[in-house]
Structures are given as C-alpha cells and as structure tokens.
Amino acid sequence: MTAPYARIVADIRQRIESGELPPGSRVPSTRRIIADYGVAMATASKALSALRQAGLVYPVPGVGTVVAAAGTVAPQRKAAASGTDDVVRAAIGIADADGLAGLSMRRIATDLGMATMSLYRHVASRDELVVRMLDTALGEYPLPADPPDGWRARTEVSARALWAACQRHPWLAHALSMTRPQASPNGMAHTEFVLAALDGHDLDLDTKMHVGVGVFVFVRGVAVNIEPELRAVQDSGMSDEDWMTAHKPSMQAVVDRRRFPHLAAAMADEIDMTLDSLFEFGLARLLDGLDTFLTPHAPSTMDR
C-alpha cells in the first residue's frame, strides 16, 4: 500500500512534469496540502521534503516552495549537520518558506540527512531551537556600535532594524514574545539600545522600560501581519491589489453611505495603504508622541 506522503509526491510530480506547475511557480504549502489531501502536518512536511530531495522544488524565503527549472540543479540539502549552527540555519530556511507551522524536528532532520534524535545533541527542544532561530535572525541586523545622536534617531534605528528582520523572516514577529521574553542576546541588545538612548532624561527605570518595550510592541504589532499576508498570496495566487480589485465591488455594496459615510468615501478613493506605509506612519506618530512626553524630562533641547 502506497504511503500517503508518497501519493502526494506523485501527484505534485505529475503536475510539475505536465507543465501545470511550471518552473518558478509555487507548489502547495504545507497548509494547502493538509487541506487538500486531508493529512497531518508531518505527512505534508515529509512530502515537501521528498520533493526537495528529488531536486524538483526548493524553498524561497518569503515566497514558499517553488518548482526548479528543468535542467538545473535546485539548491540541495547538506549531507549532514556539523553543528548547532547548521541545525538553526536549516530551521530558519524551513520557517522562511513555510512558517513556524511547517517546522518540525523531523523535517529539519530530513533536510539535513540525519536521524531526528540526533538533533537533540544540538538543541534540547523545539522551543530552544526557536529561541536560537530568532536570536540568529535578529543578529543579521546588528545595531550600530556608534549610534546617532539623540534619543529619537537611536530609537528609530532599533525600530527599523526590527522591522527589517521581520520582513526578511516573516515568522519572526510571531516567535517574539512581550509577556514571556526569550533569552536572546540580540533581542536584549535592542532593549538596552533604547534604554541607553534615554540616558540623561529625568525618567525612572519603570518608565524607561515602558518606552523601550512599547516601541518593540508597536513594531511587532504591525509585523505579525506580514506572514498571514504572504500565506494569503501563496494560497490564493492573488496579490493584495488583485484581491482588492476583485472584492471591492462586493465590499462597496455592503458599505451603506448613510451609516458609514467616511468609510464609503475612503473606499471610493484610491488609497495606497500597505504594511510598509502603516509602519512608517505609525512609527512617526509614536515618536512624535514620545517627543511630547519626553520634552519636559529632556536635559537639553539638543537631545531630541
């Protein structure tokens, strides 16, 4: 009897070979495989791993798993992990392509060509692995050793570095926690960076921590929308603009101008609103508010 994952592999292989899934196109994600074939996450992950090992597909960060071009060699897995860094990097690659939901110790082991239990020589648990992953991801965007002058410029540097890391790794915002902060040196560096930016202001530590964590919460709050948006594009095959164009008439039909006059006017206009524009607008307003709050506490108007 053919294993479920093998049937999925055969089906997707046939779609690739027939041209239904041409080179560069996205193959079904783990979520889509689960929904379409009625299988568990482990089976969906195993099917994608088998396709990658066969050189038919390869993961693209922020896009998903795509079909390799005919006659080319898709990026191949390593024969074996030589250390913890290999395990962490393999896990990041999987999460970049399929999110944390597609991450499992079995899938990492399969990609690295090693036994699942061997991974535990490098990390004690999946939770520890995720902490190492987020620390590595944040470390790709180091804070400057020579920061700019002024609390606002320094705080903005930290916020933009966090935003860039979350854009590069869409799963990162979901992995970061405010209420249960992880033991991540690179994450702690951001908090320290903002706290140091407030030196010289007449603020107690409690207030300074609320400022520092508040900036982090804002960035994370916008960034948690990155991954769902990417998955929606992958699952639907439609960009945000295409989706709005297709659904705008039905939404306008629901918006009663008498009940929602402002919203109706907004929908009738061409408003360019993206996660980037929301981040830029929100960050500027957040810093404006902090500027008003910090002005009475500032040692000098030059430090603003």
From TrEMBL:
One Pfam family in the UniProt entry: GntR
InterPro entries with a match to the protein in the record: Bact_HTH_transcr_reg, Homeodomain-like_sf, HTH_TetR, Repressor_TetR_C, Tet_transcr_reg_TetR, Tet_transcr_reg_TetR-rel_C_sf, Tscrpt_reg_HTH_GntR, WH-like_DNA-bd_sf
Residue span(s) of domain HTH gntR-type: 2-70
Membrane spanning residue stretches: none
Keywords recorded for this protein, A-Z: DNA-binding, Repressor, Transcription, Transcription regulation
Recorded GO MF terms: DNA binding; DNA-binding transcription factor activity
Metal-binding as UniProt keyword: no
Residues of the DNA-binding region: 104-123
Biological process annotations from GO: negative regulation of DNA-templated transcription; response to antibiotic
SUPFAM superfamilies: Homeodomain-like, Tetracyclin repressor-like, C-terminal domain, Winged helix' DNA-binding domain
Sequence ranges assigned to domain HTH tetR-type in this UniProt record: 81-141
Official protein name in the record: GntR family transcriptional regulator
Organism the protein comes from: Actinocatenispora rupis
